[in-house]
Amino acid sequence: MPTPNSLPIDALYAEFHQALTRSHLVVESQTGSGKSTRLPLWAAETGRVLVVEPRRVACLALSDYLNSQSELIIGHAIRFESTVDEQTQVAFVTPGVALRWLSETELSDFDVVIIDEFHERRWDTDLLLALLKRQQKHKLILTSATIDGARLANYLGGERLVADGRQFDVAISYLAQDSRQLADVRGLESRVKAAVERAIDETPGDILVFLPGKKEIAQCQSQLKGLDLHLVPLHGGASNEAQRAALTQGSKRRVILATNVAETSLTIPGVTCVIDSGLERRTHQRNGRTVLGLHRISSASAAQRSGRAGRVQAGSCFRLWGQFAPMEALTPPEMQREELVEPMLAAACSGAVLSELGFVDGLPEKSLAIAKDKLLQMQAIDEQGRVTEHGKALYPLPIDTLFAHLITAMTNQPHREAMVDLASALSLGQRLWQPPSSAEGVEALKQWQPLCCDATTLIELLRRPLPEALIADAMLLKEARQLSDQIRAALALPQLSVATPYQRKPWLREVLSAQPDLAFVRRAKRRQALGNGFSEVQLGRDSRLEDRAEAAVVFDQFALPGKGVKQTLNLGTCLAPVTLAELIDAGIGQAQPGELQEDGATLVIPLHYAGREIGRVSERLENQNVIPLLVTAIKEERIFPGLYAELQQDIDAYQLWVNLGLCEENPQPISTPEAWLTTTLTDLGVLGFDDIELIEPQDLKFVGIPYWQRSEFDEKYPRNLVLPELKIRVQYLYRRKIVELEYVSGTRKSGPKRWELPRWNGWRVQYRKASKVVVVS
């Protein structure tokens, strides 16, 4: 039995120092061995140390504890709070802080970087490790109780050190009717209460209950109220003060109801019993979107959780599932479960291209392509993946990339302030307030904020006090206001207390100009659904959007798994109503073929968006400008639908025919559809819009390849291919003799086979799907 001041990790002290002089390190040992408290102090003997902790609560706890145990200068840096300065010898920081410091200074002030609890495989720690490995300027140390040490040591080109297990035994009991029963959320609060009552009788000390989220914490808190216990909720949304309170032992026996923030890196004093629901909420990819779902934990997480009971003495763990229930070995990395917009921008701001970095596990091609498209749309990166000046402005803001983009896209101060306040309210991931259910509360809300707009309500919630009849989460509201003031200070804007009034309609017009896909319109028959042409949202239960509103700007949505394997249910949780006319005014809507009016010079053009007509506009065509206007009208298919696309195909085919040397006579100059139409309309003597009535589409066709050769040419060099379960677009790179096949649609998982394709003798054939290109053989 180790002495009170010794820990199992202490046996590695000499080996640790010898190995650190040679290479990077991966340190494995069971929970409670002392990794998080000993290794930073040991590493500090060789230089300045940055310790990256995945959670704020661990940063605070470890910094406070080591400050009381060591003579070193130890600090921490989390959102809203930093005690790190030039004199700090060991700095505990969250991954987001570490990444920002890396982009600003390359972490040149530090000699050693420790990434603690790496087994959680968060995107920010995976990215940080990949960037530091590429940089090769620091000694790197990875620690965890459950990681695959040999594989990581090989990835780093480093050494693996393994320490003895935890100090104290933990007796495991399974509270399930069947040995293969899986963890289940149904009736969870009742089963937790029964387990707590058993733990009170059979174990001493405090009890730590692992639950999947705030909702289950509240339900269990309500169920346990009748027991003579001090109930302590602990979750990521808790304030720093509340988190510190959970780490302070009191005189009364406690039950700490926690999410997996309590799973790693910290010792909650007095805990001798863990009750594990076996559940967690985590993100995953579903139908191309990141959704938050309820999942069963992995075996590695279960081991981490049970270890919380054996940190200071022998303990017990009650698992609310069967002993032989099937479980994943490890939790899948976030990089494989989530969208990659933020990682891609973070990598670009550190001078790297995400797809070119070497990670422990590969990144999904589809997720990379989606992230690149979104960042290109925001103009945050260029085509090569390098960060733009706009991207550099987005990255330091401690909020979602989309909100950062919207803030910087606003052209005046009042609009920018409004966007800062809304982004701050939406960035906490939890509801700041609860819509009233009583008649008194509903009336008070109408008086306080008469406009039924979720966005305006949230902005006013930060700027003005709520009436007594309305309820807000005081702690979350305080944090949202802190975040707003932090962003305002970074952007040299007035503080929240003196916020500048803004005009709602011009503000929303600017939002739509910066991000048009935030515009959603009601479905014609399903009034609870709104679409933008790419996705659909269902109206969230607590949204204030009125039924008469035909369109809205959807600032926030919450994705949940739908009924089918690939279905996703998107709930619109923050909507701002706009009229269809305001959408048109913002440039939303695609022109359809127009109708010529009786005056012969007015074209009425329907505008469609997301599958419905949102309005009509009139266009007056003056004779002196008629040809350019006619060319535009043909291109937009308002006149002679289908002609422009046919011209493009004919011109492309002719260009390929000429470049392949198949034209026996002098070829005509290669043109564009616009230039061809302009020349042809001029040659036809079109002077006024009414002259178009004398022209047939046949008069405007491009004659390139002789008609008696065209059919054979198209068969040999098709532009589109339809194969079993696969549709492909074909492009001919004739200078390089490459045929590039691009995936369009289809359920076939593999690419085309060479025998399915035209012969294309002498050509190299490539198949592109998303950003992946393979040679077809």
TrEMBL record:
<keyword id="KW-0547">Nucleotide-binding</keyword>
<dbReference type="GO" id="GO:0004386">
    <property type="term" value="F:helicase activity"/>
</dbReference>
<keyword id="KW-0067">ATP-binding</keyword>
<dbReference type="InterPro" id="IPR011545">
    <property type="entry name" value="DEAD/DEAH_box_helicase_dom"/>
</dbReference>
<keyword id="KW-0347">Helicase</keyword>
<protein>
    <submittedName>
        <fullName>ATP-dependent RNA helicase</fullName>
    </submittedName>
</protein>
<dbReference type="Pfam" id="PF00270">
    <property type="entry name" value="DEAD"/>
</dbReference>
<dbReference type="GO" id="GO:0003676">
    <property type="term" value="F:nucleic acid binding"/>
</dbReference>
<dbReference type="InterPro" id="IPR027417">
    <property type="entry name" value="P-loop_NTPase"/>
</dbReference>
<dbReference type="GO" id="GO:0016787">
    <property type="term" value="F:hydrolase activity"/>
</dbReference>
<keyword id="KW-0378">Hydrolase</keyword>
<dbReference type="Pfam" id="PF00271">
    <property type="entry name" value="Helicase_C"/>
</dbReference>
<dbReference type="GO" id="GO:0005524">
    <property type="term" value="F:ATP binding"/>
</dbReference>
<dbReference type="InterPro" id="IPR007502">
    <property type="entry name" value="Helicase-assoc_dom"/>
</dbReference>
<dbReference type="InterPro" id="IPR014001">
    <property type="entry name" value="Helicase_ATP-bd"/>
</dbReference>
<feature type="domain" description="Helicase ATP-binding">
    <location>
        <begin position="16"/>
        <end position="165"/>
    </location>
</feature>
<feature type="domain" description="Helicase C-terminal">
    <location>
        <begin position="195"/>
        <end position="352"/>
    </location>
</feature>
<dbReference type="InterPro" id="IPR001650">
    <property type="entry name" value="Helicase_C-like"/>
</dbReference>
